[in-house]
Design brief:
This protein has 14 helices and 16 strands. Helix content is 41%, strand content 19%. The protein has a seven-stranded parallel sheet with strand order 10-9-11-8-7-12-13, sandwiched between helices. The protein is globular, with a radius of gyration of 23 Å. The chain is of the alpha/beta class.
């Protein structure tokens, strides 16, 4: 089926989905979650083909991002069930005003309509996006990358079977079959069919969507996430946070890519860092890419001009030394992608400066950047991390997939 045929099918399903009650949508989601687990074997078989085809072409951490197992599929199903527990945003009256002329104006949440998601090598995005879209009353059109196409297609087929089992329209969830660049371009310019486009992937994909789309786009984030160790930091706490932010899952957008250390603690802290992340790790030691000042304290790789502007998505960490919280903020402003940045400090005044002046979607004090996640923020799962400022910012959950309209009630008023 062509991309245009799928778009026509999605548009036709929009009105049908808008008529479903909250209970109907929840029943559909539960059926989708059950269908994922029931089709686990076939999904894993298709995922195995994707992984085998990708091995040797992408890094080990990206292979991990692509790979599924029974526990990950169960996690996907549980993520859908978590969405069921959340309140339905559709129909919520956001504001209500009674005018002097007797009119009542209600600003009311409504679905976007048809939401398209272009994503790359994370097959779990398929179920997360489908669940959030359906709960918020939106038909979804999914366009996965070629590396994960078999996995994503199997997941979508399972979700559609769950809808069909209860008699719901399968076309609430749609999977683009063409993985060439042409299909992405078709989605970007599908005026009249796509109400919102969300790119979820690397910098190249996001840049292409922002520059070429004629449909509305929410820019999701490349994550060059910083951790700044202040001169008044608990250094043991800092080590724990940095190890988690860098190594717990380096292939995701909320992983730390840059470490800034205050010069007054650098002589003590950097050897501790090297011992923890590099010398003390038999598996996956972190390569430290050091600026000129850090090079004088510990051994590592000399940082290139681009290392502080790179989303490594790997066991690599750019390390720099600064002299103050203000200098840290300035560095972040020059290199940040406005995703997630953290300060480690016991100084409330420094924390306040950092929180006020760092212009990112999520700003942390004494905590890992890895918490920037829809599930961790209580949103169920997420459609992506928005790094823009209009409409949605940070983890995008149900509310960010709605718009609003004004419902005006009167009793014969004329103007």
């Amino acid at each position: 089926m062509t991309t245009f045929e799928i778009l026509k099918r999605a548009k036709a399903a929009k009105n049908e989905l808008s008529k479903l009650s909250s209970q109907d949508k929840d029943n559909a989601l539960l059926a989708m979650a059950d269908a994922l687990e029931e089709n686990c074997e076939s999904i894993l078989a298709e995922n195995k083909k994707d992984v085998e085809a990708a091995r040797g072409k992408i890094s080990d951490v990206m292979i991990d991002r692509l790979s599924l197992d029974e526990s990950r599929i169960k996690g996907m199903a549980d993520g859908i069930r978590d969405v069921v527990k959340l309140p339905d945003p559709v129909g919520k009256v956001l504001e209500r005003v009674e005018l002097e002329n007797g009119l009542t104006v209600e600003k009311t949440a409504v679905p976007m309509g048809v939401v398209a998601i272009i994503y790359e090598s994370r097959p779990n995005v398929s179920s997360d996006a489908a669940a959030l879209a359906l709960k918020s009353g939106n038909v979804c059109v999914l366009r996965g990358g070629k590396e994960a196409f078999r996995s994503a297609n199997a997941i979508v087929n399972a979700l559609r079977s769950g809808l069909k089992k209860l008699g719901f329209c399968e076309n609430f969830i749609n999977m683009i079959q063409d993985t060439s660049r042409q299909s992405s371009n078709e989605l970007m310019t599908a005026d009249g069919y796509i109400d919102l486009l969300i790119p979820r992937g690397g910098a190249g994909l996001i840049k292409a969507c922002v520059e070429n789309a004629t449909v509305p786009v929410i820019q999701t984030g490349t994550g060059i996430c910083h951790v700044y160790v202040d001169d008044d930091a608990d250094l043991d706490m800092a080590l724990n946070i940095i190890e988690n932010a860098k190594t717990s899952r380096p292939s995701v957008c909320n992983a730390e890519e840059v470490l800034l250390v205050n010069s007054s603690v650098a002589d003590e802290f950097l050897p501790m860092l090297k011992s923890r992340l590099t010398d003390g790790r038999e598996q996956n030691p972190v390569e430290l890419r050091l600026d000129e000042r850090a090079e004088k304290i510990i051994d590592g790789t000399k940082a290139s001009e681009t290392d502080f502007d790179t989303e490594f998505l790997d066991y690599i960490l750019a390390v720099g030394i600064v002299d103050s919280v203000d200098e840290a903020v300035k560095h972040i402003a020059e290199h940040s992608t406005h995703h997630s940045d953290a300060i480690i400090t016991n100084n409330d005044a420094h924390a306040a400066v950092f929180c006020r002046d760092v212009d990112s979607a999520a700003v942390y004090v004494n905590a890992s950047t890895r918490f920037t996640d829809g599930g961790q923020f209580g949103l169920g799962c997420e459609m992506g991390i928005s790094t823009q400022k209009l409409h949605a910012r940070g983890p995008m959950g149900l509310r960010e997939l709605t718009t609003y309209k004004y419902i005006v009630k009167g009793n014969g008023q004329i103007r």
